[in-house]
């Protein structure tokens, strides 16, 4: 479905040492906040403290490989010039102008022919519809094939937010691509995810971003390099609804709602005091902030905007005597996660309950129960799995004082 040709390049080591040094020196004093308006913001002075040593990307160009300078139609000239002047560092040897022109033509059509085109400024279009990639994924000309599939799916949508919700509900099932820890790479391109049917949260986010962009919905990947509790990274998607950025988990729709996700509560506790705990949205504007790439440090990173404050403004439901317990159920220690009914019981009364998650959910997406901290510390709580006591309980206190708990149904042989 998508055509690929592999090439490789490296970024000069000296330049990247300068970037890393700049990151360390500038982090302490700059605000790094994003300005959302009809004009492109050039702000953002805080640089994430991350050193990138080399680039190893794969490019996709139409066959046979063309040569020379393409003839750009007058109506596309400013758009094409913006794209070619904002490609990621080190990318120009990998992606030809012919490739970028082919992509630009369809991206421009997706923007100008969408029912909500009047709600999308040229600056938002350039930032969140025009780019042909999100981060470090394989470069490929995905937009025509994705558009052919996605346009009929959103034929009755009247707003970018509605179209994004519909795509999140349908496109993953259409292509049979879903979450799995068995995926080959974290930062897979659409064709790589389609080939295996497996993708990480990052691969799913790239997929949804591309699907949205193919029909003129501004979208961008957003992520946290490391949760405050030290449990790893996560990525999701932001959608421009015509007035503001909204968020959603890729292949994790919550009905027709935006700004809801299993990660919302965790995001509210993040802090950009340490760059790896900040929350960043990918952009092709030169903001001066490099996304701390955790997938593969041999690949070049991308520019981003620090949006931590937007997510920490989410209300925190925990009171002073509340304890957050994240529960996983396994048949035996080390076995796959299972869906089971879990109850926390005190004096024969259920004080918290819910269903655990299986391997189809992100590794950090667990059943979250809020229970009284004093009763937990006193050992007053009994746990039940499908109405039965677990054979074993394994629990760990995390850096943010929450608890990771694994309930094991039966002991191993």
Number of helices: 11
Low-confidence stretches: 1-66
Helix-residue proportion:
25-40%
Assembly state here? Answer: single chain
Q: Between the first and last Cα atoms, what is the distance in angstroms?
A: 47 Å
Q: What letter string, H or E per element, gives the SSE order?
A: HHHHHHEHEHEEEHEEHEEEEHEEE
Spatial strand sequence of the major β-sheet: 5-4-3-6-7
What portion of residues belong to β-strands?
Answer: 15-25%
Radius of gyration over all CA atoms, rounded: 23 Å
Q: Total strand count, please?
A: 14
Identify the overall geometry: elongated
Compute the average pLDDT.
80
What structural category arises from helix and sheet content?
alpha+beta
Give a description of the structure:
Helix content is 26%, strand content 17%. The relative contact order is 0.12. The protein starts with 12 loop residues before the first helix and ends in a 5-residue tail after the last strand. The strands form four sheets. It has a five-stranded antiparallel β-sheet. By secondary structure, the chain is of the alpha+beta class. Strand 4 and strand 5 form a beta hairpin. The chain is built from eleven helices and 14 strands.
List its salient traits.
11 helices; alpha+beta; disordered N terminus; 413 residues; 14 strands; five-stranded antiparallel beta sheet
Topology, element by element:
Blueprint: H1 13-26, H2 77-85, H3 97-112, H4 122-128, H5 143-153, H6 160-175, E1 178-179, H7 190-196, E2 198-199, H8 201-214, E3 219-224, E4 234-240, E5 245-248, H9 264-267, E6 280-282, E7 304-306, H10 308-312, E8 322-330, E9 341-346, E10 349-355, E11 367-372, H11 373-377, E12 382-385, E13 392-397, E14 403-408
């Amino acid at each position: 479905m998508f055509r690929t040709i592999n090439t490789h390049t490296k970024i000069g080591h000296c330049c990247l040492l300068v970037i890393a040094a700049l990151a360390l020196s500038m982090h302490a004093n700059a605000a790094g906040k994003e300005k959302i308006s009809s004009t492109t913001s050039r702000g953002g002075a805080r640089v994430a403290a991350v050193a990138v040593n080399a680039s190893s990307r794969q490019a996709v160009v139409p066959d046979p490989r063309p040569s020379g300078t393409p003839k750009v139609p007058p109506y596309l000239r400013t758009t094409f010039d913006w794209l070619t002047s904002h490609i990621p560092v080190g990318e120009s040897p990998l992606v030809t102008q012919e490739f970028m022109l082919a992509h630009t033509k369809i991206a421009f059509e997706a923007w100008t022919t969408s029912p909500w085109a009047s709600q999308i400024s040229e600056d938002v279009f350039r930032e969140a519809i025009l780019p042909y990639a999100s981060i470090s994924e394989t470069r490929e000309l995905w937009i025509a094939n994705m558009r052919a599939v996605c346009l009929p799916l959103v034929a009755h949508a009247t707003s970018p937010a509605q179209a994004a919700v519909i795509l999140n509900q349908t496109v993953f099932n259409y292509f049979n691509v879903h979450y799995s820890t068995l995926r080959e790479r974290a930062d897979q391109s659409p064709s790589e995810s389609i080939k295996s049917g497996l993708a990480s949260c990052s691969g799913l986010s790239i997929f949804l971003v591309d699907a949205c962009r193919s029909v003129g919905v501004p979208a961008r990947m957003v992520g946290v390099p490391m949760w405050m509790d030290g449990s790893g990274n996560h990525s999701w998607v932001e959608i421009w609804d015509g007035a503001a950025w909204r968020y959603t988990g890729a292949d994790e729709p919550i009905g027709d709602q935006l700004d809801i996700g299993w990660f919302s509560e965790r995001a509210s506790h993040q802090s950009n005091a340490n760059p790896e705990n900040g929350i960043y949205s990918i952009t092709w504007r030169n903001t001066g902030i490099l996304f701390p790439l955790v997938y593969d440090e041999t690949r070049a990173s991308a520019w981003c905007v620090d949006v931590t404050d937007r997510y920490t403004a989410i209300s925190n439901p925990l009171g002073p005597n509340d304890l957050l317990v994240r529960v996983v159920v396994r048949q035996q220690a080390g076995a796959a996660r299972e869906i089971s009914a879990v109850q926390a019981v005190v004096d024969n009364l259920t004080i918290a309950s819910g269903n655990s998650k299986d391997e189809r959910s992100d590794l950090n997406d667990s059943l979250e129960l809020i229970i009284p901290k004093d009763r937990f510390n006193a050992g007053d709580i009994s746990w039940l799995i499908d109405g039965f006591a677990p054979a074993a309980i394994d629990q760990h206190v995390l850096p943010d004082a929450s608890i990771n708990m694994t309930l094991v149904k039966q002991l191993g042989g």
